[in-house]
Each structure stands twice: as structure tokens, then as C-alpha cells.
Amino acid sequence: MPELIKGAAVIGQSGGPTAVINASLVGVVEGLRRAGAGAGDSPISRILGMRHGVSGLTAGDFHDLTDFSPSRLDRLAATPSAGLGSTRDKPDRAYCERILDACKKHDIRYYFYIGGNDSSDTCRIVNELSNESGYELRCFHVPKTVDNDLVGSDHTPGFPSAARFVAKACMADFMDNISLPGVKINVIMGRHAGFLTAASALARRGARYGGAPTGDGPQLIYVPEVAFDLDTFVQDVAEIYDRQGRCHIAVSEGIQDKDGRSIGALLIQGETDAHGNAQLSGSGALGDQLADVLKKKLTPRGGKSVRVRADTFGYVQRCFPDQSPIDLREARGAGRYAAALAASGDIDGSVAIVRTSPLGGDQPYAARFERIDLGDVAAKTRHMPPEFLQGRNDVSQMFIDYCRPLVGELPSYERL
Questions:
Q1: What's the mean per-residue pLDDT of the chain?
Q2: How many CA atoms lie within 13 A of 168 on its CB side?
Q3: Does residue 273 have an active-site annotation?
């Protein structure tokens, strides 16, 4: 085994929590322990957890994970949410200099950051600064995001579990819709990528079991990758409603018009998050506005108002305690793999999940981990490829084949 650097290891969690982000944390701890971390003669002296990400690191606020018992680690791995606490800080170069100073102060030589696009960019900048200063620091990004929008990977830890929630929630919502017919809109996370909204297609019986289309909802699925037009939307809904007397719709929070303007941002004036982005997930304005439009447009003059309802799934998608088995296994494995890379002599990188089984094939799902350069994933956004889309308001069979094995087994119900 290559010579290990003498010093401590630190792990942080960033961005929105997920159902499996703690599994990745545990995976890093386990991987470091396999390399001897915490043992009396080990160069890796301690395993520290940043409280609330880099804000805790720069403040010297740590949770010592060196001697955390295996049984507690197992329970933590199966626990949704960010156990260490997360942060929305988006460090610039000056902030990253403070991060590096904190690493030097606490003799940290192994830096692991679990998160999405911004977290990978933080790793990249800290790594560049450490190289420039001559301070040896092994920097590794462990992927996480329910949006599934990190480049270089087949999918991202956190997405399969969130997709499982979306599929089951839309399944339940559709059964409600056929019991009391009307129009139902579900607004689903996904500011720039539609993967999570697309997972609503698994609510359909045909999609779950590989059968023919059944007319199950959601009949209409709108994602950011396809330009959204309000008049066309009304027409789409009217066609389904006139034919079936009901309509079930899944809409991404990030839908945008042909000019790239966010529909949600246009409707939610004045509400922004810490980075100046329109607060899409925390507001029901998009669903309410779309519902109001449909009520006005679909109701005959002087006739009875059409029953239209909208729900915004919001944060409940991220940490619902019904994880995908594959997601739990891969999230933990990604953490272990990052630790193994650091212990083997690699100085930086991100972890990618590469699918090795064909889409729609008869053989079981399989994937492996690979190291990719930080610059290949940092601050980049992956979108749904055209082959995953079908027309202006649906997904393709290829997407169904892609997503179905990730979410785990879904319920089967009888219908009259």
C-alpha cells in the first residue's frame, strides 16, 4: 500500500439532505478505517465530521467519528437526512482559502465533501489552492443529489430513493384521481433537469411491469428540457379530460418557456433562496397558478367549474424513509470508494457510477464506481438526453428502462 500522509481526515455534507447521504458518510468512515484510520500507529490520526459543512470546518466545529461504533454506523447509514447537518454556503476562492487555512490549522490531510455541483466545485478550488501552496491535501468529492444532474455518472446517489417516492406518491395520487375524477397537478423537484419528474411515469402499471400502456396517470409529464407553452398545456389537458373525464399531470418546478425563462420564476416574484434563485420548491405558487389557468380555460361559459387541484411535493421528496435498496448500497459504496482512492495514493477526484448492464436487457442491473477528475463534474449540469423524452409531454421507453431498476420493487394493486 502507498505511504499514507500523516494527519486527520475530515468529512462534510452539503446541499439538500437525501434519504441516503448518511450512507455515503458511513461509507467514507468505513473506507478510512479499512486503511487503518484511528489505530495507534496509523498515519490517519482522526476522522472528523464537519458540523454543517464547510461553515463548521472554518469555525472548528467537528464531530469526532473516529471511534463511532459499527452498530451506530449501520443505523446512521439507514437514516435519512444529513446527520452532520448541511449547509447552503457556496464558497468562492476567498472562502476556499479559509477552508484550506482550517485544514492546515487542524492538521487535516484528507478532505471529503458529499454533495452536488457546488460541492464538487468547492473540492476543485480547495484542491487547486492546496497544490499552489504546497500543502499536501487529498480532496475527494462524493456525489449526492436528488436532481440526478451531475455529469459523468449514470445516476447520482439520492436520486433513486427520491424517484421511488415520486413514483409511489403519483401512484397513490392517480388512484385518488380515478376515485373522484378531476384534474390533478403535482409539482416535482428539478430546477434544471427533469429526471425526478420523469420518474412519475413509473406510477403507470405498464411502466412498472413492462406491459403495454394502460392510460394510467400521470398522462402528461412536463420537464425543463422541453419548452413549456401555457396555451399548449391547456390544450393537452383538455384533450385528456374530454376523453377520460379526468387528467393527472406531473410538472417539474423548473419548466421554462422557449426563451429559457423559468415559468415558476415568472410567477413567484420576489421569493429567492440564498443564491438569488427563485424559491421554487418551497412555494405552491406554480401549481396554484397552473390550476387557476385550467379552471378558467376548461370551464364552459355559464357551466360548472372543473375540479382542479395542485400539490407541490417540496422537501418531502428528499428524505422520505423508504429508500431504494440499490441507492442505499451505492451511496455507501461511493463513500468507501472515495476513501479507498485517497488511501491508495490518488490526490483528488470525484466518484462516478457507471452502469455496466444494458438498458432494457434481461440481465440484472449492475454498475461499478470510477474516479473522474474534479474539473469534469464541478459546477456542471447534466440534462435529460433527447432519447429519454417522447414528444412535448412524456418520457420514452428508454427512460423507463433506465429508471425502473433503480427504484426497487413497487406495489401492485387490483383495479376494477
A1: 92
A2: 19
A3: no
pTM for the model stands at 0.93
pLDDT tens per residue across span 336-389: 999 999 999 888 999 999 999 999 877 899 999 999 999 999 989 999 999 999
Calculate the alpha carbon distances from 22 to 170, 217, 314 in Å. 26, 33, 20
d(CA 184, CA 291) in angstroms, rounded, equals 8
Other CB atoms within 10 A of residue 185 CB: 25
The Cα 279–Cα 267 span in angstroms is 11
Q: Which domains does the chain have, with CATH numbers?
A: 7-146+322-377 (3.40.50.450), 161-317+385-407 (3.40.50.460)
Query: Of the residues 89, 118, 121, 147, which is catalytic?
Result: 147
Instruction: List beta partners, residue 252.
Output: 188
Please give the grid coordinates belonging to residue 179. Answer: 376515485
Cα separation, 161 vs 321, whole angstroms: 9
Q: Mean pLDDT throughout 31-50?
A: 94
Amino acid at 267: L
The pLDDT of residue 275 is above 50: no
